[in-house]
Amino acid sequence: MDAKQHLESLRSSLNEIFDQSLINRGNIGSSHYYSSCIYDFAQNIASDDERKILETVAAQIESAALISAFGLYRQAFASLRLALEMGLGAVYFSIHRLELNEWQDGKADIKWSQLIDDERGVLSKRFADAFFKGLADESRLQKEAASRVYRKLSEFVHGNYETWRPEGLTLSYQQELDSEYELLCKAVFDIIMFSLCCRYLKSMNAEELDTMSFIEVELGHIAPIREALGGPKDL
Amino acid sequence: MAFYLRTESIKSEEIMDLSVINASDESTIAALISPEPCLIEGSRGTGKSFLMRVAEQRIEMHSNQSLSVFISFNISSLVTTNDPLQFYHWMLAKSLKGLINKLRKKGLTVSPFAASLLSNDEFSKESDVEKDLKKIVRRFEDSYRGSNEVEISNLPDIEDVKEAIEDICSANNLSRIYFFFDEAAHVFRPDQQRQFFSLFKDLRSPFITCNAAIYPGVTYFGDSFEPNHDCTYKRIERGIFEPDYLQYFRDIVNKQADDNLKKAIDVQESVFNCLALSSGGNPRILLRTIQDLEKVNSSSANKEIKAFYRGKIWAEHTELGEKYAGHKSIVDWGRDFLESQVIPAIEAYNDSRRSNNSEEATIFFWIHKDCPASVKEALRLLTYTGIIRKVDSSVRATRSQLGARYEVKYGCVLSSDSSPTAESASFFSKISLKKFPEFGKNHPAYSDVRDIETHILTDQQYLSALQSMLQKPVDVLPLLTEWQKDKLKSANIFTIEQLHLNSEEDLIESIYGVGPARARTIKNAATAELLEYLSG
Predict the structure, then answer these.
(1) Are residues B511 and B395 in the same domain?
(2) Are residues B286 and B178 in the same domain?
(3) What pTM does this model have?
(4) How close, in Å, is residue B117 to chain A by CA atoms?
(5) Which domain holds residue A33?
(6) CA–CA separation, B527 vs B521, rounded Å?
(7) Inter-chain touch B74–A210, beta carbons under 8 Å
(8) Are residue B93 and residue B145 in the same domain, yes or no?
(9) Residue B211: pLDDT band by 50, 70, 90 thresholds?
(10) Each residue of B452-466: pLDDT tens digit?
(11) Is the minimum CB–CB distance between A43 and chain B shorter than 8 Å?
């Protein structure tokens, strides 16, 4: 078998996995939906900088959807992790312009520890109190979820021993990892969308809010967000 | 421990785990799932939204051929308009946007962004379905948003919308789309409610089913909609005399309770039963009173029953009067009538039976069919919060006179006892539907209400209520700082209306120190107040 035949054989395996993913996946549209929601939210943000970062986040989720369907789970998890970092990064940079410029100049990186820092992070009480009073309690829960999800995604990026089991090295459809991808993709979306709402919702007018019916569908269970959209108050 | 007191606070994936469904609920859910349109009526907190959520999930779990779209008319961007059609178009646009979102979520359409992202040539191929719907939505939005005059005759009509929905069904092998309208009539003023029911009827098609939740007492259907003919009409009434009542409510609480609370309830079963009966069939009230207990024991429960059923329960009813200024006098009269006439009459009735060692008690009262219309109106409004419930409307009382029989919420009657938990079991066993104090057609208590003109929530009253709210000073806006209020006053902006009429640009221009961010914050404070008013 030459290299060309070898690659063709891999392509054939990928196609088989792809077909199986489409059959087995609960909802093949969810990743596209999450990506579209983030993109639509970004269109209501005035700053070009944050908007562009969020468009990249949406693109990362789209990429993750595609490569996970081909069974390239490790790469899909890496894309999700990048989406999570950049999604929270966009919110972080919206209030730290100096660091934004340094990052754009290639002089600084997005640091996860900074994003979820208790004092300066985007899921801190201080941040919620400043931009969306009433979300501090929920921010704490989201921060815990973000740490959990990030750790899980990092296991595949950094190569924790158990993620390198022999069966993980061959191309094959893996129900467990496929389901894990769906769960983690939703979790990444929930955390990003929450932090976007925390940062921007209060500064948006009724017309802008009206373009995003998905917020109520996805985050309406969080009382302060529901109330900000004109929904019924918690008792 | 904290319970979910509102369905809106429950994540959709948790709904089925928390559901407790009895035979009556099954019948309501079956009506919601059937192709026939359905209205479910129930007082606040009786579980209308929850049952609609269960029906929504069952529809999608059982078939790939149906889609359910949940619409909450919480946000009204139309404060007031001279054109009734604009509101109709606003509702249609909101419903279609909900549908577009659901189609995306289910993977039946892909947004143009997603489609173009990893492929160079997909942008032009934006899904026709989504494009068609978006086009219709955009034209509706232009008609009620834009300052430009839009020729109504050029707008898509309801048949275009139905056709677009039928196309979606054909393209995706869907047999039906269900719309669930929550809080349907609650947030609307009467003319808007009539528009809503007109839309509800107009959307009828072999591919569309509309369901909605409504409140008793404050819903206006309009002339074109006949609830008994145009839909299946279900009332949610969880009667305290039903044989499965206590177990049903125990199951509801157990679904959310932790182990400690479950154990405490097992030990204090009679206390739980007293609280469950007191709620008069209202899950939210039961959960709320249990949540507020210091401990699950008689002394805490007695304290809570007295505090809640003598005081807190009236808050929602009183708010109704505040929402509609023109309506306030009749709302307040209803409360006075119940507190100072009806409940004391029931107590006197029960006391006299008790002193005679009679095994009879009541929580019912009877009102003559020819009592003043304003009395009927006041009673109707009391059913909104569920403090009373109309049992039947043609019951013969003394001298064979005809009238309506009402049930007062059990807790409201029991709360006047010195120890409700000790009295409850014996009291409950004596209650008879056939025993009730009577209020004739000229009862002296009506004298105060005769002068109050029969109030219906007219547009005029709505506007006058809105006007009174707009005239309030900016000082009442809780979202503004003192500095911002002072700055507004220095720019001759004293009332909410004056603030509402100034654009963000006006504020930036006329107030030193106010830039785009502050102008937005200040404007949002006024908008939040308007929204709160509209949402109730």
Answers:
(1) no
(2) no
(3) 0.85
(4) 7
(5) 3-228
(6) 10
(7) no
(8) yes
(9) very high
(10) 554 444 556 566 667
(11) no
C-alpha closest to that of B500 among B464, B472, B526, B535: B526
- Option in A36, A205, A206 nearest B114 (CB): A36
Q: Is residue B460 part of a domain?
A: no
Number of domains in chain B: 4
Smallest CA–CA distance from A215 into chain B, residue: B101
Which range has the worst mean pLDDT, B147-156, B235-244, B398-407? B147-156
> What band does B536 get if pLDDT is binned at 50, 70 and 90?
very low
Choose among B279, B277, B271: nearest CA to B301.
B271
If asked whether residues B50 and B172 sit together in one domain, one would say yes
pLDDT at B276: 98
Tens of pLDDT, residues B294-321: 999 999 999 999 999 999 999 878 877 7
Query: Any chain B CB within 8 A of the CB of A63?
Result: yes
* CB contact at 8 A, B481 and B522: no
Q: How far apart are CA A87 and CA A142, in angstroms?
A: 14
Residue A234 located in a structural domain: no
- In this complex, the residue of A35, A214, A231 whose CB is nearest that of residue B8 is A231
DSSP string, B65-118: SEEEEEEETT----S--S-HHHHHHHHHHHHHHHHHHHHHHTTSS--HHHHHHT
Domain holding B55, by residue range, is 7-235
User: B64, B67, B72, B76: best mutation site toward chain A, by most A Cβ within 10 Å?
Assistant: B72
Q: Averaged over A139-168, what is the pLDDT? A: 82
- Side chain identity at B448, as an amino acid letter? D
